[in-house]
Amino acid sequence: MRKVLITGGTIFVSMYVAKYFVDLGDDVYVLNRNSRKQIEGVKLIESDRNNIGDKLRGIKFDVILDITAYNKEHVKQLLNAVEEFDDYILLSSSAVYPETNKQPFSENQICGFNSVWGSYGSNKVEAEKYLLENVPDAYILRPPYLYGEMQNLYREIFVFDCADQNRKFYLPHDGNMKLQFFNIKDLCIFIQIILEKHPCEHIFNVGNVELITVKEWVELCYKVAGKDIPEFINVNNVDNQRNYFCFYDYEYALDVELQRKYLPETTDLLAGLKDSYLWYKNNRSKLKDTNYFQTKAYLQYIDETLNSI
Q1: Please, are residues 236 and 171 in contact by the beta-carbon 8 Å criterion?
Q2: Segment 100-154, tens digit of pLDDT
């Protein structure tokens, strides 16, 4: 049994990761403010990560899974608070790659400011840099768009809502912008592989090899919701597609060949979306009033603006 510290533990990625390692039989501690329901089986360390104090003193962790570090200070404060650990895995982001880099982005490329992601990406760059300066053997994971069970962002959930309401779907431009995804379960499997194999590489892009167009992705979301392919309406006259669509107007790809060396197969997108839809269908009524789902005003904008064009 490993003693695992997970930052967060109550929303999507960190919540799924916590449940995954609890189910493996590990001794899982979660560090959060206790503002939401905890996963059954975890040990709560109630604290804001910006003010941990001595709450981690006296505990030797086999692994730290840092899911909620968004900047250098988050990493610094956690390292100052913990006394002893073996492995440290930081969940970073593909946002660390400038959009001017050659695609697909590879781990050996320079990192820096990306105008699409702004300070989110540059803060992740600083977090990675500080961690590796202080824990050279740490591991860093850079995913594209994460999806799956326990999703709280209004991405596939937005399309599920459209499907359940039998809506026509407004696509940005011709719908051919490509996206890259990674299932939350595959993320956990890869973390487990790292802990078992301790690969010599320490920075990994993680994700599906295959990219998919936004139109194809919407069609899959409607399919898992048991609906026919919707009527598509192409939108070309709206400057900001985030007013009505759940992704920025930005296409990029990660080179995941290094990941495939250790995880050659990933979850089929159709199967992963089916799991995501079933989880959402079974949980939306009881979670709707807890502010778990970060819904956006896409439907309102569509009804009030696009329907009248």
Answers
A1: no
A2: 999 999 999 999 999 999 999 999 999 999 999 999 999 999 999 999 999 999 9
Longest dimension (CA), the chain: 63
Amino acid (1-letter code) at residue 58:
G
What tokens does 167 get?
């809506």
**How confident is the model over 65-83, as pLDDT tens digits?**
999 999 999 999 999 999 9
Q: Name residue 1's beta-bridge partners.
A: none
Helix H or strand E encompassing 3: strand 3-7
Helix axes 156-164, 269-287, angle to 10 degrees: 70
Whole-number CA gyration radius for the chain: 20
The token duo for 94 is: 């593909």
HSE-up (13 A, CA, CB side) for residue 247: 27
133 touches 127 (CB < 8 A): no
Burial of 185 (0-12, 13-18, 19+ CB in 10 A): middle
Which amino acid does the sequence have at 14? S
For tokens 């001595």, name the residue: 54
- Report all structural domains of the chain as residue ranges with CATH numbers, in order of start: 3-147+182-205 (3.40.50.720), 156-179+209-250+268-303 (3.90.25.10)
CB 190 within 8 A of CB 206: yes
Separation in Å, CA 97 to CA 72, 93, 125: 17, 9, 9
Please, are residues 42 and 30 in contact by the beta-carbon 8 Å criterion? Answer: yes
> Is it the case that residue 308 has pLDDT exceeding 80?
no
CA atoms within 13 A on the CB side of 294: 9
Quote helix, strand, coil % in the chain, to nearest 5.
35, 20, 45
Q: What pLDDT score does 239 carry?
A: 87
Dihedral sign for Cα 237, 240, 245, 248, please.
positive
Confirm if 253 and 105 have CB atoms less than 8 A apart: yes
